[in-house]
Design goal:
alpha/beta; Rossmann fold; 3 domains; five-stranded parallel β-sheet; flat
Length: 444
């Protein structure tokens, strides 16, 4: 699990495969160890396996790992600048995540933040690597004699500068996430373990920071949280009563969930404590007994969070738009290409290459846009029904509407509801689609 909630990886290490892999592996090993020691928790540092390009789909996996990383650490060298993959795929993929990061991490702490660290490992002629994320300052790991040997004084000086830059950034990103207090932090009972793990996974995926993250100052950590959740089982914990009093005084929402073992506990102290929690007068309290499943608990937590504006799901990258069209038709592919290239700086587009993904993309994308050019009327009517039932923003773009389409269009307009309909006459005009894309922008 990443240190920064909402991301799969804390740091993505980008390097050229023509450079010294042994040095890079030792460098990353030192980085992982240093982050763990300084943060008090493991940070997820992503480095591709040496056999990734031979055994797995690196063309898909590496860009996805870039966009799901909080920070981009790249190691420029002459080989790096000659690598089309490093420059045009990895660097560009991370640059595409910056709008969503800037929308999520706001305030003076993040002014002009690029969420990237540049550490050249070899001399680059004319400092051309400065064109990659121009706002950054170099932390060089080389001099005229070559790349600094790991562990030597020159390396240690550069490494210290790197950690002094990286650590505060990761901490600021984590601390900016809305905290939720889930107690106990390490339950022994299997039922509580499973319920907590499921809830914590969902909260971190939604970019919430889970407390307590240390075993001191529990009341202060609870006071920091926007919501508190108490998981109660068979065993008695005297700390719970004190924390429940703090939660009640805070006047913020808090939830008590009792497991089936808790309901049937024979521990006298726990029996009294559960009775106290259930009967405690607190307007912001929700008590869920064993009849409510862990899924119901998650549903209740989601509704109480409501959700916080800073809890941006899918924080790593552009909003996704699914284009639905008849891909076998060249004219239809051209129409899709016109839309995708017109809005590619702001959105990521999925295409109907895999029919097995059709339903998932209809319901899981931030927006679905149906394109109708030369396809049959029956095809359009059928696909429109599916689009109209899909979630989030949805639209229909009709190319060169003619009289033959009027009957179908009239029927579609009657059923349109919240579907944006745009018509393209002659040359493609991107402004006609702004209404559809504005819906997605407003939901970001």
């Amino acid at each position: 699990m990443a240190f920064v909630p909402g991301y799969k990886h804390d740091v993505f290490v980008s390097y050229a495969h023509g450079d010294n892999r042994e040095w890079i592996s030792r460098f990353v090993g030192r980085l992982e160890s240093a982050l763990k020691n300084k943060l008090g928790d493991s940070a997820d540092v992503w480095l591709d396996d040496s056999d990734l390009r031979e055994t797995r789909n690196f063309q898909k996996e590496i860009p996805e790992s870039v966009t799901s990383a909080a920070v981009f650490l790249f190691l420029p060298s002459p080989a790096y600048l000659r690598s089309q993959y490093c420059v045009e795929i990895e660097c560009r993929a991370f640059a595409d995540t910056l709008p969503s990061k800037r929308a999520r991490f706001t305030g003076q702490d993040f002014t002009n933040e690029e969420y990237a660290v540049r550490c050249p490992i070899e001399q680059v002629d004319n400092n051309e690597h400065w064109q990659l994320f121009p706002g950054l300052t170099d932390i060089p790991f080389f001099d005229a004699t070559g790349t600094h040997a790991v562990g030597k004084p020159k390396f240690e000086r550069s490494f210290s500068e790197l950690t002094q830059s990286l650590l505060p950034l990761l901490k600021r990103m984590r601390n900016h996430c809305t905290p939720v207090f889930v107690y106990p932090p390490n339950p022994e009972e299997d039922e509580l373990k499973k319920a907590r793990a499921s809830l914590v996974n969902e909260l971190t995926d939604m970019s919430y920071r889970v407390l307590p993250d240390r075993y001191v100052n529990l009341p202060d950590q609870l006071r920091e949280a926007s919501l508190a959740v108490f998981l109660q089982g068979e065993k008695y914990d005297s700390t719970v009563k004190e924390l429940a009093e703090v939660a009640r005084q805070q006047g913020r929402p808090w939830v008590v969930w009792c497991s089936s073992l808790g309901e049937t506990t024979k521990v006298p102290e726990q029996m009294v404590q559960l009775e106290f929690l259930e009967q405690m007068e607190a307007p912001k309290k929700t008590y869920l007994n064993a009849g409510q499943s862990p899924d119901k608990l998650k549903e209740e937590v989601r509704s109480l969070l409501n959700p916080d504006p800073r809890a941006i799901a899918g924080a790593g990258g552009k909003r996704r738009v699914y284009l639905v069209y008849k891909s076998a038709n060249r004219a239809e592919r051209m129409n899709a290409g016109r839309i995708a290239t017109s809005f590619e700086k702001e959105f990521r587009f999925d295409h109907p290459d895999d029919p097995a993904q059709h339903t998932a993309l209809l319901t899981g994308s931030d927006g679905v846009l149906l394109l109708w050019g030369n396809a049959e009327e029956d095809w359009c009517a059928h696909e429109f029904e599916a689009v109209a039932r899909s979630a989030r923003a949805k639209g229909l773009c009709v190319f060169d509407p003619k009289e033959a389409k009027n009957a179908v269009l009239e029927q579609i307009r009657k059923k349109a509801g919240d579907v944006c309909i745009a018509e393209q006459f002659g040359n493609f005009d991107r402004s006609r689609l702004e209404q559809f894309f504005n819906l997605i922008r407003r939901s970001a």
